Structure formats: C-alpha cells, structure tokens
Amino acid sequence: MGKVTGFLEYERTPPSKQDAKLRLQHYNEFVQAYEAEEVNREAARCMDCGVPFCMSGCPLGNVIPEFNDAVYKADWELATTILLSTNNFPEFTGRICPAPCESACVLGINKSPVSIEEIEKHISDMAFAKGYIKAEEPLIRTGKRVAVIGSGPAGMAAAAQLNKAGHEVVVYERDDTPGGLLNYGIPDFKLGKDIVRRRIALMEKEGIVFKCNANVGVNVELNTLLREFQSIVLAGGSTIPRDLPAPGRSAIGVHFAMDFLKQQNKRNRNFSVDQEAILATGKDVIVIGGGDTGSDCIGTSNRQGARSVTQFEIMPTPPKSRTENMPWPQYPMLMKVTSSHEEGCERGWGVNTKEFIQDENGNLKALKVVDVEWDIDKTGRPLNFKEVPGTERDLPCQLVLLAMGFLHPQKEGLLEKLGIELDNRGNVKAEEGKYQTNIAKIFAAGDMRRGQSLVVWAISEGRETARKVDEYLMGHSKLATKDGIA
Ligand code: FAD
User: Fold this and answer.
1) Domains in the chain: ranges and CATH
2) Residue 53 in 3-state DSSP?
3) Is residue 217 in contact with ligand 1, taking CB distance under 6 Å?
4) Which residues, if any, are the signal sequence (predicted)?
5) Is 59 a pocket residue for ligand 1 (Cβ < 6 Å)?
6) Which protein residue has the closest C-alpha to ligand 1 atom 35?
7) Relative to the CA of 447, which ligand 1 atom is closest?
8) Based on the number of CB atoms within 10 Å of its own CB, is 273 exposed (0-12), middle (13-18) or buried (19 or more)?
9) Which of 244, 298, 343, 421 is 20 to 30 Å apart from 170, CA to CA?
10) Would the CB of 237 count as within 6 Å of ligand 1?
11) What is the pLDDT of residues 261-298, one digit of tens each?
C-alpha cells in the first residue's frame, strides 16, 4: 500500500475536460491526462483492501491495488507489467470502460471511489511513451493455424493471446479497417482512432495477419477456412439493431444509430461514405434510447451542428445518486450523465413513441410521443407501463436516431452456413467458461456469444476463449487464466 492515510487525506480528482463549447468544434478526445502529482494522489487513495472488491468487479480481474501501489511509487514499468498481466488493451479500457471496478471500490461507500480508469489510462500512456509496451513475437511457433472472424476487441484479444501461445493467427474483417466497434461505432471524441491503429500495427509486428474487406461466408469461402485452419474463433459482434415498428417508421429521416455514427467515423478519416449522408446539421434531432449508443448520437449530433437534441428513454427516471438503503456494491442503475449530455441535450424518461409523422413527401416532420407510468415491484424493478392520459404530443423533428440496443448477431451467411447452434436469445450458443460451439473446432467470444455488452467483457472473453482454443489444439495451455494463473 502506497500511502496508508491517503484515502483520508485526499479527495478524488476528476480528470479535467476541455470546455464543452471548444470541444464541440472537433471530434478529438478531450479528457486531459492527469498531471504527475494528480495521479500520485489518486493512487494514494487506494485502501489496499483485504478483499479487493474492485478486482472482482472487473471482468478482467485487473490487479488494481498492486498497480495503484506501483503508480504511487512511480514505478511505471512494474505498473505496466501488472496491468498487462490481465488486460491486453488498457489503452482502450482506460478511455471507454464504464469502470465497474469503481462501482465496487470500497472507498465509494463513504467517499468517491478511486479513479481507477484514469490511472489505467495514465499507465498505458506512460508505457507507450517509455517503450514498455512493444511488439513481442513468440519465441516458438506451434505450426497450428487459427482463423479469427471479426476484429473487434474480442477478436483482437483472442488473436493476441493465441499468437502469444505460438499459433499462426489470421483475423478476417468484413469492414475496410480492423477494430470492430472501436473503429466504426465508438466516436473519435471518446476513443481516438490513432490509439486503435497503434495497437493493430503492434499486433501485425507480432506476426498477426489482418485481412480486411473479407466477409466470411460471403466473399471468403467457409470451406477453405475449415480446411486451412485447425480452429476458428467467431467474434463477429451483435449487429442486428432493435427496431421501433410504430406507424410511419419508413419516414425519410428515421435511421439506426450505427448508420449515423459509422458515417461520421468515416468522414473523420476522409473515407468516402457510400450511402446517402445522414446529417444532423441544422435539424431538430430526437434520439430514442438512453444507453451509450444514444449518448454517442447526442455528442455527434451536437458536433454536426444540430438545432436541438432531445433524448427519450421509455424506462422510468433512475435515481440520481445512491441513497443509504441501497445495497452495496449492487446499486440499482443510477442516472448516468455522460460528457455528451453535458454538451447540451434535453432528456425525457418514461416516454413512449406512438408515431413517426411524415409530410406529404414522406419526410419526417414530427414524433408523436406519450408519457408512460411504470408499475414497479418491491425490488425496484419496472414491470409494465400504462400511458398517462392527456400527455400525448407531437414534437417537430427532422431526424430520429434509433439507439435501443442490439438483438443478436446476423444469422444469414456465416452462422447459417456453418450450422452454428444459437441460444434462445439468438446469440451463438457456447457455454461461458468453455466457449466451444456445437462444432468442436469452432469457438465463440464477445458480443456474438454474450449479446451486446462492453469492451472490457469482449477483451475478457477473447482471452478466455484463446486459452480454450490453445487447450483444444495442444492438450494444455500456459496462457494466463482470469485469476492470473498460468
Ligand atoms: P464488435 O466490436 O462488434 O466487432 C465485431 C466485428 O466482426 C465487426 O468489425 C464486424 O464487421 C466483424 N464481422 C462480423 N461478421 C463478420 C464476417 N462474417 N466476416 C468478417 N468479419 C465479420 N462499450 C464500452 O465498454 N464502452 C463504451 O463506451 C461503449 N460505447 C459503445 C458505443 C456504441 C455506438 C456501440 C454500438 C457500442 C458501444 N460499446 C461500448 C459496446 C462495445 O463496443 C462492444 O461491446 C464491443 O465492441 C464488442 O466487441 P466484439 O469484438 O464482440 O464485437
């Protein structure tokens, strides 16, 4: 433990952000790195708990008290070693993880939790700057070949671990650039694409091959893959968005969030956008859906110069902060205010969409909505809702973005042709902990298996799956388990 009394002496230092007016003028990251003194103080706040709940809160099992100690002592090399022992890509999680570790931090019971995510970002930035993170080719090659389908964080983590074990890894990606949602989905202002490119370049140096514009099951023959590779990892993500089949859904100006976000990611790189441009400029925008994707639509709409941005969520208003009778560490979902909300947006909870109203040319001109009231059970769980009489209203808008989550992976093509069994939610069926599908040599990881989730879970599943593939190919594995045991 770095400083025994640190948690008593210091309050949490929130990372400084560029002023909202200034950051709305660009798409770059705007959260400033801690100064040396700030990160030292923040690490000193760690209580080094006997039972580190933060570690069990982290899907990767990051060894948080130990890296906090190393950071407090400014031993960046040791901090890097500890962090990389459980997490292949701390430069991603340090920027965009919702930090379940912080929700589980014991200091959070009485004070603000340790700012673990910012510390992680600081370690990874220092590690790259000082050359502690560098390409490391495996010393021996096993002669076995593994194909990874999908280059998001799950596919990347599986590839990195399998390559470390000495297997020859080829990653197939149907998009023009690797990275999955890190690349085409999550806006640049949350995660700069230079950060993703830097990691891909490093993995290529380590011997991993990325094949882009390679849609397996469409322009890449499955039989060739099955013949040429001893094992296959499916990491294609959860790509089918939830729709809102209200009257008028076909109005011009109603779009899925991902179509909108991906276009802006492409524009930022001067890549051509092959479909009709979806732009918020000068429009009244309504975002339907209150999660991360919805927030990213707000930030992007404001940067494009929307006239107004409103976000609706059908669920009831969540509590703003923790109250004393809430259980720890399993609080109910609290109201999340993201940096995109801070930049400007009206929010409404308990609002249902009744109709997309069109003008005579089929263009969207308004959204008919109504307030709803929820029946809540004893544990606070919303059960069902009814409309509040007299609250129906038409709200003028020219762009509606549907951000209500994702249902499951695409079945046509890859999964259907392979004959992969699906679970009752439509995700790839592969038991957690085993990750093997109904076809022995084929494994699955990330959103394609667990349903829409988080980057930290995708990395965790990619690592775990790699170990199972390694065991399948070699009879045993020396890759680290979640508990860090090799
Ligand atoms: P993906 O990242 O979806 O990658 C799958 C890849 O597989 C894609 O590139 C796809 O093109 C490719 N693919 C699919 N089928 C084929 C095929 N047949 N052949 C070749 N390639 C194929 N999580 C967070 O933790 N923090 C956030 O801030 C956050 N923000 C988000 C914002 C948005 C807009 C969205 C949509 C999600 C966000 N998430 C966030 C969730 C997170 O991005 C996902 O949980 C994570 O990316 C899942 O990783 P994955 O590797 O399983 O799949």
Assistant:
1) 5-130 (1.10.1060.10), 145-239+406-474 (3.50.50.60), 243-402 (3.50.50.60)
2) helix
3) yes
4) none
5) no
6) 293
7) 52
8) middle
9) 421
10) yes
11) 999 999 999 888 878 899 999 999 999 998 999 999 99
